[in-house]
């Protein structure tokens, strides 16, 4: 059994990590650390875990060694924390935004503060198995990309060489992305039914997409009515026709267990919709073309394939386990 | 023009008071008081008022005299505040819970604290024109009932003498009832899609219903997915048949401008649904009968007929204006 | 491997049966029958099954023999169908409403038509393991109760002897209960955000609750904003105190794998909420007491514990498999 | 009083026309025509009109003359209908898609059928007062643009000369845009919580935007969780800085009663959100800039400023009435 520690275990990503690990036949939770709720039962914070576990949160200063440490701690706090805790585990998989961009200048530009552990940035392998499977199998430091970055990257990867480099990405996100500590703007009465353009330009994840895809990505982001889910609609231009594009998508993802090509010509479910993916580790990708205009679309659950599920997938790869272990939930319909 | 002051103007009820008063041809807003946001434009807090007003919030200690003062301030704080400010206006209409129950023991039982201005309790006329129109025309102190209390009272009034006194009321409410200062349990990710039984027994408004109707009312309350809206389903027993009940409802509300009897036998809209009433001052009431079982149903917008709209209706009555002035919005469909 | 046939496989319950059976290690789907879509891939109708199966629907007249036949066909049609197909399988588990009430007069009263197979009614064991586990282990005909009936029955069972027989049940349901063939009243624009009292008195499931619990149950039902989920709030009277009730609930369900007692004094999740149970086979039950008033509450996913999950649980019992096999998904939070 | 006839009065746009006309001090409804429901009360179909009117729908063949005829009839049917009925009124204001594009080839390309009344196409003035106020004052034939076309056009107009011609528009829409006759894909259980990219390329309204703005517009469209509301996010490139853009927006709309510039740097309501506009005739427009990237955003209620409200605004202009008459509802918050 792989002994796994979770930091930030009382947050939304932390809760999903616990859910997935509890259902995983090859892992045991060594420790669930919460700064806010040490001493409280995990199922008092994550009520879906009632009957699944008697786990109690521990304080950060009680952290013990384990095989794999998953850090689902806040941006900025994590770059301070990580150098302190990396010695406690053979592998650290970070879900925060702090180690996603290898260039500290990019970090500062998008996160508004200088990076305090720039020497570590180059050591992280991006937690996106569809690109870095071999490296992940040997990585000691893994950084799971942002949820919209993973979605956009998977939407765009098959287009390499088929579209011009300038890509405009339109991301739509659910409210869980704001976390369990969100403020008054995320009260239900304020956020319900909203179409809130919270990043009309320069969403943080655009830098990750540019780096991962080699394209020049720009991203806007809008909060829409949903708790979970990210959808990206990517606007590109190129000359490939529909048949070429379809082949590119099919070939790129033929062997991927968690990427499905969803690009039908008709039907209510013809293109990726995150509503179908709640709780699942799938990223659905699709496309459409009209003349020189190519639209690439992806959907995922921000807390699973966009976070905790990707982390467990990386953990499986790193540990030499079957990649899909513990990640079998397919999502619901209708829902 | 009636000069109206609003205290608690940055809250949700305060915002609705401003909206209704700005659209009211017979009133002018003398002052909008906010403890939290003195000096800020009202439309920065209530964005639906953009283009409607340049009003700026003032601090509580700047309160001036006016003709009518509307207090939409928090429970407990209001019983302290009201004795201080009642001299500033000929009429005070209170929307808080502090002056709804004439008996201070009832207040303490349901609000968990002794009343600090018990001498005033008897002086308030309930702000429910369907029962107290004549008294309201001369009242200096008016207390608008709780939103679920108004709904249940209007649902039950026609049943006087037709049902046994024990009545079980099941209230369902939207999230705006928790106010603009609600806590983490009301974050969108937590509250969205919920069916949260927050008062399985002894909801505060049951005491008001008992007092207003003379019945022995018990109330449970559940938060459901909605921002606005209260619906009550009241379970009673009696021997009246459908025809008798229909006549009782029709006669009771024949002359009421804001109560509609909605009790069809079929159709998606056969019975009261608050979704149709957002922004309107209607309370729809209906009923059904099966043997000795009588179900009475009412729906309203908690911020309008359950709060700000009722206050403006009372203001109109007190001022001798047409009762419907400024309250003409009928609600939307579909919505 | 148990060979399972599913009739009505293109409906919502049918889709959930397929999802659960595909994830079940002890079953294989012998056939998925659809009257509407013979020849179409199952994942074209249930898009969450993409990548899970290549199953194609067959026509009803192609039905072959199998070990267990699950009928998720419409009310009224099923009572004609079942006598024709029961010979095709050793065990038939019916999810329709047609075989839930042993008395044909009760059926006619609640379903508005005479029963056409009254001779079979007495042969069905109710598919509620918490009451009929031993009988289910040997049953050839099983009828899964209505979703609200299961919820109310599980909420009320521990109160046997502790409350008076008259019980008023208030059920709230999501839109999936209307099925994939629902009409214009269930269009999103009409149904969204609704609080639609579609059964102000005499909901069909009340007869089932009365029969299963021995109480005299009355049920109202309201459609609220949700796709999945049933919550019942049951109003009873009695003299038991909180401690007695807590013990009764705990003891009654101490060994039940899919019933959790959720009855905290505070917190956003203090009482059962179906939002946490989407996709899971749990039924959460809770209670509160105020004087002689007892409120019992239950929540479940109408398509799982209220339908397909209960059927699979019964199948496991009948087949001598571990009862929880294939039913491990715990639900999500936040969601 | 202006005598107004409404065709298609039982649809969603028809219902909003009735609501607005009933609240309009200068109009009287001469006739409300419904093909589906002749003889039924209008408030049986539009339940928000209960207590507002006793109007009964008439059949199409009973159409009489009136001053202004509003046609809210389906696409394709309207191009046949309009030549037949235009003689019944001095002014016809059409809300369908059939007379929006002056070029019949464009119509055929986007609507998939040849136009049957091409000789009329050039006679229609677009019902967008912000561009055609003078022409509307004398127009006999007016065609209200598509909801997303109006939003995008108003978002983009101030950018004339400031951005390059290629513009990518991302539209998000509520479910009411599919109309009261929508099919199974719009059932609540299917459509709820969806992010459904129903037009990944070449949404119909892009041709209108190109014509109205002189830009080369491409539009994608996604159905998101909302009943009402359209939001467009337009991606353009140019060299203007923030100050220049702000001035351009302010100047362009300085005198417009129904366009508000909403472009704050922070806050939950910093940019246009249709949730605030339900029932109101406002179109909010805003923008943001990052280097050479300009994002323009607009929001409106598809049934009001995107349909019925625009029609009434045009009617006011044509009749020489104050333009805002009957259109005073400002929208709600929270909602």
TrEMBL record, chains A, B, C, D:
Single GO MF annotation: oxidoreductase activity
Superkingdom, taxonomy of origin: Bacteria
A Pfam entry, by short name: Semialdhyde_dhC_1
Subcellular localization, as worded in the UniProt entry: Cytoplasm
Database matches in InterPro entries: AGPR (IPR050085), AGPR_dimerisation_dom (IPR058924), AGPR_type-1 (IPR000706), NAD(P)-bd_dom_sf (IPR036291), Semialdehyde_DH_NAD-bd (IPR000534)
Pathway entry: Amino-acid biosynthesis; L-arginine biosynthesis; N(2)-acetyl-L-ornithine from L-glutamate: step 3/4
Active site annotation, chain numbering: 147
DNA damage as UniProt keyword: no
Keyword DNA-binding among record annotations: no
Start and end residues of each Semialdehyde dehydrogenase NAD-binding domain: 3-139
Main location: cytoplasm
Family affiliation: Belongs to the NAGSA dehydrogenase family. Type 1 subfamily.
Protein name per Swiss-Prot or TrEMBL: N-acetyl-gamma-glutamyl-phosphate reductase
């Amino acid at each position: 059994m792989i002994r796994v520690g979770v930091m930030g275990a009382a947050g939304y990503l932390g809760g999903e990590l616990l859910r997935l690990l509890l259902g995983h036949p090859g892992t045991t939770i060594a420790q669930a650390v919460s700064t806010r709720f040490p001493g409280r039962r995990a199922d008092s914070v994550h009520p879906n875990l009632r009957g699944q576990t008697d786990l109690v949160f521990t304080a950060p200063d009680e952290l013990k060694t384990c095989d794999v440490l998953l850090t689902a701690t806040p941006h900025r706090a994590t770059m301070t924390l990580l150098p302190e805790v990396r010695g406690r585990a053979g592998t650290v998989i970070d879900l925060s935004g702090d180690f996603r961009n290898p260039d500290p200048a990019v970090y500062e530009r998008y996160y508004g503060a200088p990076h305090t552990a720039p020497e570590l940035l180059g050591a992280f392998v991006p937690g996106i198995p569809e690109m870095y499977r071999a490296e992940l199998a040997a990585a000691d430091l893994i950084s799971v990309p942002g949820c919209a970055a993973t979605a956009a990257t998977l939407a765009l990867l098959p287009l390499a060489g088929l579209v011009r480099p300038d890509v405009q990405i339109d991301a739509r996100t659910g409210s869980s992305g704001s976390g369990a500590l969100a403020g008054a703007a995320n009260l239900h009465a304020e956020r319900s039914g909203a179409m809130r353009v919270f990043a009309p330009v320069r969403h943080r994840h655009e830098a990750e997409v540019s780096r991962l895809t080699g394209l020049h990505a720009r991203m806007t982001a809008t909060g829409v009515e949903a708790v979970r889910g990210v959808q990206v609609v990517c606007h590109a231009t190129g000359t490939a026709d529909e048949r070429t594009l379809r082949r590119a998508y099919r070939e790129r993802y033929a062997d991927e267990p968690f990427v499905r090509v969803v690009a039908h010509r008709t039907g209510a479910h013809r293109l990726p919709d995150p509503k179908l993916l709640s709780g699942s580790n799938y990223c659905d990708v699709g496309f459409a073309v009209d003349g020189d205009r190519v639209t690439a679309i992806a959907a995922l659950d921000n807390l699973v394939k966009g976070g905790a599920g990707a982390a467990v997938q990386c953990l499986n790869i790193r540990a030499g386990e079957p990649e899909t272990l513990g990640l079998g939930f397919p999502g619901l319909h209708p829902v």
